[in-house]
Automatic annotation (TrEMBL):
Protein name per the record: IS607 family transposase
Active site: 58 (o-(5'-phospho-dna)-serine intermediate)
PROSITE patterns listed in its UniProt record: RECOMBINASES_1 (PS00397), RECOMBINASES_3 (PS51736)
NCBIfam families assigned: transpos_IS607
Keywords: DNA integration, DNA recombination, DNA-binding
Gene3D superfamilies: 1.10.287.2170, Resolvase, N-terminal catalytic domain
Domain Resolvase/invertase-type recombinase catalytic: 50-189
Biological process (GO), any one: DNA integration
Signal peptide feature range: none
An example Gene Ontology molecular-function term: DNA binding
């Protein structure tokens, strides 16, 4: 928003006040702590872009959850008058930055809207950066359920511990060590 205020000749603090009052003359949205100004998108992506539903699970054991995710997100998107052009499903950890389908989706300029069930389905960390990069290209990430659940946070900590234990001790006993570490912390309770 700072760049927009400077380009229109108004003070940044005035733009902030107008944003807070809801009287800013342009559409805006938040990406983390940033206030992004939604200016009209020109070029190839206007009106001709694809809407893609992206669903991901961490392991093959959770594969049945993919269908549930796809169904929920597709119903949500069609309820908002978004025509779903394609569905992309993937099995892989959110901590893995080398998911082939995920990277192909990000690099495809024809895809202008990506719809996910929850932000962690897209990536555990740095989702704000991905959203900002997509926004800079005139693309967007829509999240059906933006709220994080405490269970998701516990799962995040478990995955991080598993990853660290795997690096320290090898892959073989990493999951068990991480599980024991989480159990030890939860037995002791909060300090």
């Amino acid at each position: 928003m700072k760049e927009w205020a400077a380009s229109t000749g108004i003070a940044y603090i005035t733009a902030r006040r107008q944003y807070a009052a809801g009287t800013l003359p342009v559409p805006t949205y938040r990406v983390g702590r940033l206030i992004m100004v939604g200016e009209p998108v020109t070029g190839v992506t206007t009106g001709t872009g694809q809407t893609v539903v992206y669903a991901r699970v961490s392991s093959a054991d959770q594969r049945p959850d993919l269908d549930r995710q796809v169904a929920r997100v597709t119903v949500w998107a069609t309820g908002r008058k978004l025509a779903v052009d394609r569905v992309v499903t993937e099995v892989g950890s959110a901590l893995d930055g080398h998911r082939k389908k995920f990277l192909a989706l990000l690099s495809d300029p024809a895809v202008t809207t990506i719809v996910v069930e929850r932000r962690d389905r897209f990536g555990r960390f740095g989702a704000e950066y991905v959203e900002a990069a997509l926004s800079a290209q005139g693309r967007r990430l829509l999240v059906v359920d933006p709220a994080e659940v405490d269970d998701d946070l516990v799962r995040d900590v478990t995955e991080i511990l598993t990853s660290l234990c795997a690096r320290l001790y090898g892959r073989r006993g990493a999951a068990n060590r991480a599980r024991r570490a989480v159990e030890a912390v939860t037995e002791d309770g909060p300090a």
